[in-house]
Every structure is written in structure tokens, then in C-alpha cells.
Amino acid sequence: MKNAFEICINLKEIVIPNSITSIGDYTFENCINLKEIVIPNNVTSIGNFAFGYCEKLEEIMIPNSVTSIGDYAFYRCVSLKEIIIPNSVTSIGDCAFANCESLEEIIIPNSVTSIGDYAFYRCVSLKEIVIPKSVTSIGDYAFNSCTSLKEIVIPNIVKSIGDYAFPSWTKVIYE
Fold this sequence. Notes:
Number of domains: 1
Radius of gyration: 15 Å
Number of strands: 14
Shape: globular
Oligomer: single chain
CATH topology: Leucine-rich repeat, LRR (right-handed beta-alpha superhelix)
Largest sheet: 7 strands, parallel
CATH superfamily: Ribonuclease Inhibitor
Order of helices and strands: EEEEEEEEEEEEEE
CATH class: Alpha Beta
Strand content: 15-25%
Helix content: under 10%
Structural class: mainly beta
Low-confidence stretches: none
Strand order of the largest sheet: 2-4-6-8-10-11-13
Mean pLDDT: 92
């Protein structure tokens, strides 16, 4: 499905059929009026820029079948308020949720082992994040410029924390 609906500015909602197993790179990029999408349980991956710049997308339910969220997958989805990442996902790509300015809550499951560079960069409404004990690496600038983030707890299992991963004013607690 790579580039399938790219720049379909009049697309407001879509139900992806059960026969689809992957949402490819750039599939819904720049669908600026896309507000609602249903992803079936057969989808195992969400590609790079798959929903990039979908400015009216407010929420999305990622099914338990998805194991990877690509780079820039939800980049600049400025209306996205909440996202629940299923237990099947093991990595969150670079810039996956960067510039999601309305994102207030993110639940990262215990299956995730790595959080990419700039993954949640400039999510200015994000107030709280729980890093599960499964995460071993946090990329450069992963949570930087999250101006509402006051405190973050890092499990002792984390082996690598990238440069400027958190805003300088955020209290980082290691447990």
C-alpha cells in the first residue's frame, strides 16, 4: 500500500480491509483531513511516514498484530491526543510521534525495547510518560522539547540514553 492515498486531501475516514497486512511507507501522508481510520487486526507493521501530516487525526487504535511503528509514522499529527501502543510492538521508530502537539497521553507497553531518536520530540502537551522495564535504549532527543513533561522515571535496565533525550527542566528519576 505504499503511497496509496498520499495527499488525498478530501479523505476524511477509511476502513482498511482485513486482507491488508501492512500499511506501507507514505500510505496516508498529507491526508490533512483524515480524522478517522480503522486498522484491522491483520496489519503487522506501520511504515515510515504512513500517517505523517494527518493533521486532523485525533485518535488511532493500533491493533495487537502490529510489531513495528516506522520512522515518522505519525509525524506532525497535531490533533492526535491519545495513542495506545499494543503489547506486540517492540520498537518505536525515529520521529514516530514527533510534533504531535496535542498528544497528552502515551502508554508504552512492556514489549517495547527501544525508543528511537526524536520519537516524541516536541509533544508539548505530554505531561506524563512511563518507561517500561523492557526498554533498553532511548534515542537522541526522544522526549526533548516536551514542555509539559515535568518528571520521568527511567528503569535501571536502560543501557543507552541518547543526547538531550529529555528537556533540561524535567526531573529524571532512575529506579
